Amino acid sequence: HIATDFISTATLSSGGDFVSYEQIETPAHDAGTLCRRIAELVQRSAADPATPVSVAINTGFGGQPSPPNSAPVLANLDIKSALQASLGRPVDCITPAQAYALYEATFGTAKTSGVACLLYLDQNVTGGVTFGQTLWKGGNRLAGAWGHMPLGWPVPHELDGRDCWCGRTGC
Q1: What is the dihedral of CA 127, 135, 14, 90, to 10 degrees?
Q2: Beta bridge pairs of residue 8
Q3: Average pLDDT over the chain, rounded to whole?
Q4: Torsion-angle region of residue 78: left (phi > 0), alpha (psi -120 to 50) or beta?
Q5: Fewer beta carbons under 10 A from the terminal one: N or C of the chain?
Q6: What is the pTM of this model?
Q7: How many Cα atoms are found within 13 Å in the side-chain-facing hemisphere of 115?
Q8: How far apart are CA 74 and CA 130, in angstroms?
């Protein structure tokens, strides 16, 4: 069984309804093709060049390495700069967990909450925190990267020294 990654684009109305949705297969080994395909999707879904663009992508936080389950083409790519060059406009890169948190705060059950937190548990422990309908990224853009935050007062079994994909131990 070969896992296939997809790039999806969704355009939402101001009320949170899906206006359009499109999905294409991720080019596995060519960064230029990847950026062109994303740019094509964005241009089709947001014809107005003034429309803000956020890209939810499973990459490292704040310059950290990308997880091994990310598309291999992302390994040494500054995806934000590459997408901004392809689109000719600012792009905000967030994680899928942050995108889910922002959606819930804007359109979902958390839209009446002053503060909301979403925890996304897979092989990477991530999440998103919102204040009102604004995503909080933190001073180092690491808010929600809980899988790679050291514990405040670790007990001996939490200091096992296992090597992590990020280059640290004990994550």
Answers
A1: -110
A2: 23
A3: 75
A4: beta
A5: N
A6: 0.70
A7: 1
A8: 27
